[in-house]
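Researcher: I'm preparing a figure for a lab meeting and need a structural model of a single chain. I don't have an experimental structure, so a prediction will have to do for now. The sequence is pasted below. Please return the structure as tokens so I can convert it later.
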Amino acid sequence: MSNQDPLENIKKLRELTGVGFKDCKVALDETQGDIEKSIEFLRKKGIAKASKKMNRNASEGLALVKEKQGDVSLIEINSETDFVAKNQDFIKFCKELSDLNFNIKGDILKLNESKMQNGSTVKDNLVNLIAKIGEKIIIRRTNFVNSSNGINFFYVHSAIEKGIGKIISIVKIDGVIKGKNDEIGTKIAMHIAASNPLALNKEGIKKEIVDKELEIIKAEIINSGKPSEIAEKISKGKISKFLNDNSLLNQPWIMDPKKKVSDILKENSLDNPLKIIEFVRYKVGEGV
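Model: Understood. Here is the structure written out token by token.
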């Protein structure tokens, strides 16, 4: 990041890395004032093992959704504390990023290089915001769902403003007729937010997740004193339940647990069967 004021850049780099004035000046001179390259320079020299702030855990923040003409974008921006997630400078930054994210169709690499309203890139504005607020802030993930082959619906759980919250889900459904059976779309998005399915169907759950769960189940049964051959039989039943509980179509419907999501799709189908094409769910900080 180039800046007219070298002292301001040194101040920012010191704030981010905890490295002394002289070493920060050398790093900035070597990188023509680029903050990110300066951090990398200092790390390579062994002066800064990692950015002081960027080495912290950031599991708070906000998720933002934007919809226009049926297309929907989603972005998660993390901070260290919920206090910062309520900061107006942070929220303003997130809102502008959400707009840019929609325009570049969820490409996070393009987003980082995109120009913001002040003329600087997202990457540079992020560095400035970190220096100003004093916390680690990261653009964690982005997504974009176009409106081809279906209609998009989304749900924001506990929205603090329109399109901003802690849990956001998007679902694309084919076979919906607007004004007739479209209410089911938002309800399915709500179900996804609440039930956190891993995949649309059992076959879509990643093998490594299934294998890990099976390993845990078997160990738990054996540790309870059951013989290994009995553990094998019991584990098959338990893994079957795990697959059903975590695949969207097989999950109990949150509004009537006696039915499955697949049953709800059949019940609400009209001219054509309702079919879920894809879905995405962001919960702020999940997995961090």
